[in-house]
Design goal:
51% strand; alpha+beta; Thiol Ester Dehydrase, Chain A; two-stranded antiparallel ribbon
Length: 128
Amino acid sequence: MIETKHKLRMGLHDAHYAGNLVDGARLLNLFGDVATELLIRHDGDEGLFRAYSEVEFLAPLFAGDFIEVTGRLVKVGNTSRSMEFEAWKIISSAPKESETAADLLDKPILLCKAKGVCVTPLDKQRIK
C-alpha cells in the first residue's frame, strides 16, 4: 500500500515539560499530518481523522532530537482508511556534552507507535 516518511527536529517550542521533554500530543499531531498526506495520495482529499485504536508511548523525546515519522495505509474500506504510524528518534541531543552536541544513533529508538482510522467521504474521493 502507500507509505510516507517525514524527518524533522524538535525545537524548544516543542518542549512542554521540565528538562525540555516534548509531550506525546506532539507526536499525535505529526501522525495526523502523515495521515493527511496518505489520504491526499490515495483519495485526492484530506479526509478526516476518525479515531486512534491504539497509542503506545515507548521512550522520551526532547527538544533538539531528530525524529522520523512514518505512516502506512494498511486497509481501505468504502470510506474508511486504516493506518499504522511510528515515530523513531534518529539523532539525540547531547546537552551534557555541550549546548550544540548531538549523537547520531547507531540504532534508532522507537518513541511511539499507533493505529488509527481516517475517513474520506465518497463525494470527496477524487482518485479512484
